[in-house]
């Protein structure tokens, strides 16, 4: 049995409300929802560290581009680690809270 796309909600809108901990500078090249989704996809695929998540994303870039913007390509492992490490856990949790 295949899983219909209609059954699985798109998680990206939930990530849009997560406060971005980064300063607005010319070096802010990657969208926060893209960084969160890359990390989530990597972890769900069984990778275990930031280098592996970045490598996973590079290998799956064509697939990721089907639903992520990635205006400046795949973030480095350092960017992934730094940004995710600075997220406020409570605010992240509140954005993911779904009421049924």
Automatic annotation (TrEMBL):
- Per UniProt, residues of the H repeat-associated protein N-terminal domain are 14-96
| One Pfam match | DDE_Tnp_1_assoc
The lineage's top-level taxon is Bacteria
What InterPro entries has UniProt attached to this entry? ISAs1_transpos, Transposase_11-like, YbfD_N
Q: What is this protein called?
A: Transposase
Q: What is the lineage of its organism?
A: Bacteria, Pseudomonadati, Pseudomonadota, Gammaproteobacteria, Thiotrichales
